[in-house]
UniProtKB/TrEMBL annotation:
The keyword Transcription regulation does not apply. It comes from the Bacteria. GO terms for cellular component: plasma membrane. This is ABC transporter ATP-binding protein. Residues 381-614 form the ABC transporter domain. SUPFAM superfamilies: ABC transporter transmembrane region, P-loop containing nucleoside triphosphate hydrolases. The chain crosses the membrane at residues 18-39, 98-120, 188-217. InterPro entries: AAA+_ATPase, ABC1_TM_dom, ABC1_TM_sf, ABC_transporter-like_ATP-bd, ABC_transporter-like_CS, P-loop_NTPase, Type_1_exporter. Residues 22-347 form the ABC transmembrane type-1 domain.
Amino acid sequence: MNHFINILKYAKPYKRYAIGHIISNVFFALFGTLSFVALKPMLDVIFKKDPLDDLGQPTAQIIPTEPVYTGLMEIDDYVEKLLAYNMHQFTGGDDSKALIFVVALIVVMFLLKNIFGYLANYFLVFLRNGVIRDIRNKVYKKTVELPLSYFSEQRKGDILSRVTSDVLDLQYSFLSVLELIVREPLTIIFTITIMLYISPQLTLFIFIFIPVMGFIISKIGKSLKRKSDRVQKEQGIFLSALEETLTGLRIIKGFNAEEKFNERFQESTTRFYHFSNKLLNRQNLASPSSEFLGILMIAVILWYGGNLVLTGDSELDGSTFLVYMGLSYNILTPAKAISRALYNIKKGGAAAERIQEIIDTPNPLKDKENAIEKNSFDSEIKFDNISFKYQDDYVLKDFSLTIPKGKTVALVGQSGSGKSTIANLITRFYDVNKGQILIDGIDIRDLSTGSLRAQLGIVTQDAILFNESIKNNMTLGKDNATDEEIIEALKVANAWEFVKDLPEGINTNIGDSGNKLSGGQKQRLSIARAVLKSPPIMVLDEATSALDTESERLVQVALENMMKNRTSIVIAHRLSTIQNADEIVVLNKGQIDEQGQHNELIAKNGTYKKLVEMQSFE
């Protein structure tokens, strides 16, 4: 129930729709009850029953006079006499006309009931869809804000499942209950009030059965949340399998592993099939259980009330008893709806918990309250005795390095030496465990993340592009870039030579992950994207690793020209690309092994020279 209350908090911006929904439901419940009460005068006409006066004489011989309202305590008598007066005014005592009058009255009551029912649903549409949109947006926003470390421990499919199917579960479980919060309880309250007025003795029987119904329904629904949680987790597993299949389809086909992945997927969907069957069959018990219990209640009322009418031990007459039975049946529909709502709350609890888990996940990289907005880079970047670990073992240990403005520093070393980790730390994808990283003497943890990354241009080893046009991919870091600026950046990255030949030039869609392009073309586009952003600090994480030899040379010249007026951190695998760097830092197991310019390091005859010699034979 706590999760249900949390979800309802999202309804605050839509309170005007909630108020309209509540008011409409009040009138729906009222006219729904009155529509059954209006049956009594019709039955009285059909059964030729005339109301009695205070002396016990039939009033058919007396012309009704307009009653006078004497107070709330006499409201029932006033309404009955007013109805009799209006009926006589309309019919002149003619039974046929009287029947038409009461039938019209019933039609009006049902018409008003359905009009307010429609209005209630009309307001609910805006309320429910608005809440769903806001929840989905909040989950997505939080997903984007969370650090990369969070997703290294999560299945992508599970995240997709929470944003899509879990939110839909809320729409058809928790939020469908909004319709019932006011309408069904009020219908029951209004109906029982009338029933108590008609026969308090008979109505007591209903209160005996309500706790029994509630107990049985709660027993059936007790395990729904657990079963629903299993279904949603399994859905996350097969969505992950689907996502991995689409991402790695080239490798799957290349290794003839289609059958292996097909079996893995089918195992997950089979588990989902069995879990879903158990969940839905348990849910399906709700309606027949509540209906059967309701019919038992009706049967008892028929037996007990029928005896009261037949023996004359009560003021109940035939027409009143029939109205009472109609009112009894009027309780069944909302009672069934409430029982379904209880099931839905149980089922939706698992979805709400999974969604709330993402929303409530703390973000360790969240900006400080008074984070500094830095709009320029003036002097230096300093790695001050930093240490960092992803899990248990440190990948960087007591690492210190100062990079003056305008200088190019290259990081080299074997795989796992910590080169890419430095790129992840300067961009604050992760925070250091020890030490600090300073830009112009300010710890980057004191800067707002937005202003820090505005100073950085990033080109990663894997060219990450999106299923958009080249133009939209390029303007990721500069929304207001002109076509001329885009073309100039493409020329700098040696990408214009192939872009100009595409069917729609820079407006050409490059497909999912840019798969309509070659690896080298994708990398050149990602370099052009960084060029267009034109930041003061460039972080190039093996930016030329996917290029062929010819493109590498052309792009390397472009990169060197681009880096002349910028501070650059270049992580390189191919050592031939960084020979002109102002400083080369050789890393080994997270620590600096050697440091200096190309010629100096060669002269040292150490680790760097061995790396160069190894590559010269490649």
